[in-house]
Amino acid sequence: MQKDLLLKAISNIGLYTHSESAILKKMIEISINNIAVIQAKDLKSQIPLSHTAIYSSLKTLQLKGVITKLQSQPHSYELNQEKLEYAVNLYKNVHSKKS
Length: 99
Known about the structure:
The chain is mainly alpha-helical. It has five helices and three strands; from the N terminus they run H-H-E-H-H-E-E-H. Strand 2 and strand 3 form a beta hairpin. The longest helix has 18 residues, at 81-98.
C-alpha cells in the first residue's frame, strides 16, 4: 500500500482523533512491513502531544484494532493492514464523489 495515500486518508476521513491520527501517521511513516518500532517517549519528542494523550491514543488505537503491541519485540507495534485498507478505500470513495 502506498504510504502517501494512506497518510492522506488518515488525515482526511475523520475516523480518528487528532492525537490518534498524529500517532498513526508517525507509525506509518517509520513502519517496515507493517511493523513500527518506537517508544512513547520518542513519539512525545516528535509529536507535540502530552504523555497522557500519547498513552491514551496508543491504547485507543489498540482497542480499535488498528495497531497491536507485539510481545515478541519491545516497543513494536503491528499495523492492521485490513483497517488501513478500509481507511484508504473510504478516502477514495469520498474523494471520487467530490470530483
